[in-house]
Amino acid sequence: MDLEDYFPSIGAARVYRLFRSVGYPEAVAQVLSGLCTLKISARVLGTMPCLSFVEQYDPHALATRARIRQRLRQRLRQRHLAQGAPTSPALANLASYRLDARLAGAAKSVGATYTRYADDLAFSGDADFGREAQRLIVLVAAIGLEEGFLVNHHKTRVMHQSQRQHLLGLVTNQQPNVPRRTRELLEAILTNAARHGLASQNRGANPHFL
Question: Any idea what the Cα angle at residue 93 is, between residues 90 and 99, rounded to 5°?
Fold first, then answer.
């Protein structure tokens, strides 16, 4: 499952409360929350397309994606955690502590294990959990809403053992591994480099290719 607009959903007031909760004086917490958050100007937001190039040609996505983009614009107008800032991952994890605790408990109640990486939520378990998956999906969305996050249901996937289970760019059926196509491509590059030299495969002249 996926949390919609994860970093923009964590506003400056929430960041301020985090700094206060660990003992910073009010004035210091205000300065730190100001340094760690930003808001996007109306001029920059005006250049943001309502839909991506791909979405413009997907009639099924038009209405839903437009609403999601509108919500994102509203969040970006307010001070929020800056995506890409070195401080944001740690602050976002602290802001998500209650969410993580509640989702871990919900997962345990149906015999599943909960894992989160930024906005990506994963719940794994055996066949018994598979029969409870739909109920858990509804519960996760409700908990997320209570904790200030929205689940992007368009990115929710239920992946059974008989399917390729894909998570964060890795195949995770038996153990984390790169997809077969990626592995085969790498093997071909290594074989050709051994036969014809490294430079023959570095078509983009990447200085870090080796």
Answer: 170
Q: Enter the pTM of the model.
A: 0.73
Q: What is the rounded distance in angstroms from the CA atom of residue 17 to the CA atom of residue 95?
A: 9
- Which two tokens mark 67? 């609403």
- Which helix (H) or strand (E) segment holds residue 167: the answer is strand 166-167
- C-alpha Rg value of the chain to the nearest Å: 21
Strand-pairing partners, residue 73, are none
β-strand partners of 80: 11, 38
138-165 burial, b if ≥16 CB within 10 A, otherwise e? ebbbebbeebebbbbeeeeeebeeeeeb
Question: 4-38 pLDDT, tens per residue?
Answer: 889 999 999 999 999 999 999 999 999 999 999 99
Number of neighbours of residue 18 by Cβ within 10 angstroms: 21
Specify the higher pLDDT residue, 86 or 182: 86
Give CA separation, 10 vs 20, 68, 120, 123, 157, in Å.
16, 16, 15, 23, 25
Rounded Cα distance, 107 and 129, in Å: 9
Q: How confident is the model at residue 50 (pLDDT cuts 50, 70, 90)?
A: low
Burial class (CB in 10 A: 0-12, 13-18, 19+), 207: exposed
**Range 47-53 average pLDDT:** 63
